[in-house]
Amino acid sequence: MSHRDTNYSYRSVSPPTSPQISPPSSPFLSKSNDESSPQKPEQRLSANAKRQKYLRRLFKFRQMDFEYAFWQMIYLFVSPQKVYRNFQYRKNTKDQWARDDPAFLVILSFWLIISSLGFFIVLGLRWHEFIKFIIWMVFVDCIGVGLIIATILWFLTNRYMVIAPPRGQDVEWGYAFDVHLNAYFPLVMILHLFQLPFLNTVIIGDGFLSRFCGNSLWLIAIAYYIYITFLGYSALPFLKNTRTMLFPVTAVLVIYLLSLVLGWNFSGGLSYFYKYRVFVEP
C-alpha cells in the first residue's frame, strides 16, 4: 500500500470532531443544565444525606477548613457581601447553597466559650455555674434559637418569596441556618466580647450615660443581625421582596428610643438574666 493510501485510510476511520460548547457564564445554572454536565457523585446527595455528612464531619477537625472560616468571620465585619458571593460559588461547584464544612460553627462555639469565660469573671460565677452557662450559650442561645429562627425564615421565604423558580430551586434549610450563624457572630462579638470590659464600670448603672452606651450597642448588634440576614436571602436570585426583612429595624429603633426615655437598661437586664438561669442553690 502506498503512502498516499495509508493517509487516506487513517482519515476515513477517524471520528468526526464535535464543536466544544462552553458552559454558560451565569453563576446560577438551571437544573437541566446541571443534569447534562458532568458532576461529582457528592453533588447528587439528597438533603438528608447532606445533613448526615455535615454532622459526621462535625468531629473530624482535620477535614475542616478553619482558615476559610476565619476569613468569613473577618469579612462579616469588613464586607459581608463577599461572604455570600462565596456561597454562590459553592452552589456552582457543589450544587448546594449551605455549608458542607462545620468549621464556622466550631469556631463560633469557641468564641462563645471565650465570652462565657469573660462573663464567669465579670459576673462572679462559680465553676459549676460556668459549665451551665456554656451549655446555655452554645446549645440554647446559639443553636437552639438559631434552629427556630432558621425554620421560621425557611418556611416564610419558600412560601411567600419564591419567584416561580426553576425546578428544584428553593431555600435550603441548611442555608437558612448558615445565615443565622453569619448574623449571630457579629452580634456575639458586639454584645459579649466588645461590651464585656465596660459592663461593670460603665454600662451597668442607673444613669443616662450607662443606659445610652449599653442600649446603643444593642441597637447596633441587632440591626447588624437583621442586615446580614437580609443580605443572605437577597443573595438568592429566586427570591422576591427581600427588602421586607429590613422592616424590623424600624421597630428596633423605636424600642431603643423608648428605652432611653423610660430608663430600660438592656445590658443590666441581660446580666441579671444570665445570673438567674445558671444560679444554683448552695
Account of the 3D structure:
The N terminus is likely disordered. The protein contains twelve helices and no strands. The protein has one domain. It is mostly helical. The longest helix has 34 residues. Helix 7 packs across helix 8. The relative contact order is 0.10.
What helical percentage do the residues reach? Answer: 55-70%
Number of extended strands = 0
Low-confidence stretches: 1-43
**Arithmetic mean of pLDDT:** 81
Radius of gyration: 26 Å
Counted by DSSP, the helix tally is 12
Q: In one word, what is the shape?
A: globular
Strand proportion? under 5%
Largest sheet: none
Distance between the termini: 104 Å
Category from helices, strands and their pairing? mainly alpha
Q: Order of SSEs, N→C?
A: HHHHHHHHHHHH
The total number of structural domains is 1
Write a concise keyword list for the protein shown above.
282 residues, mainly alpha, 12 helices, disordered N terminus, UNC-50, membrane, Protein unc-50 homolog, transmembrane, transmembrane helix
